[in-house]
Design brief:
This protein is mainly alpha-helical and 146 residues long. The protein has 2 domains: 58 residues, no CATH class; 54 residues, no CATH class. The chain has 6 helices and 2 strands, in the order βαααβααα. Strands 1-2 form a two-stranded antiparallel ribbon. Helix 4 crosses helix 6 and helix 5 packs across helix 6. The protein starts with a strand and ends with a helix.
């Protein structure tokens, strides 16, 4: 942010004493140095506009130092890849298999009666024992046997 401060004669004196490099002002051949030397001489002699008031510019910079907290890396837990068993066709399977499995009295009997049906009607399930076991569990639950 910058602010313009009211012009004062003291600001002119501060400019020559604190801002301008004295060595540069006295030794430089630049036009700016020559103009400032003539202004300083006029101020000392109090000629013409000797009471020149200089504007001062006040610059304000705000710096915020923020030290971030250290982040501790945590191990990401990897969920086991589960084969999703779609429950939608279960009713169709139950209806198709119910006549064959109705007389079963326990889980082993359901499994024994179901295996030939799986081999004959759904050979794709022969390789996937887990899905075949889930199918047995679904049918046991539906039939109400233990």
């Amino acid at each position: 942010m910058s602010f313009w401060l009211e012009p004062h004669v003291e600001a002119t004196a501060a400019f020559f004493q604190q801002v301008v490099d004295r060595k540069w002002l006295q030794e430089s051949t630049e036009g700016n140095a020559a103009a400032l030397r003539s202004l300083e001489a006029a101020l000392k002699a109090e000629k013409a506009d000797a009471k020149t008031k200089a504007w001062r510019v006040f610059h304000r910079c705000t710096y915020v130092s923020r030290v971030l907290e250290k982040i501790v890396a945590t191990a990401v837990s990897v969920a086991p890849k589960a084969v999703l068993f779609d429950q939608t066709p279960n009713w169709g399977l139950i209806c198709a298999l119910k006549p064959y499995l109705r007389p079963a009295k326990d889980k082993n009997e359901v499994r024994e009666k179901l295996q030939p049906l799986i081999d004959k009607q759904w050979p794709v399930l022969q390789d996937n024992k887990r899905i075949a076991n889930q199918l047995v569990d679904i049918l046991v639950e539906y039939l109400g046997v233990s």
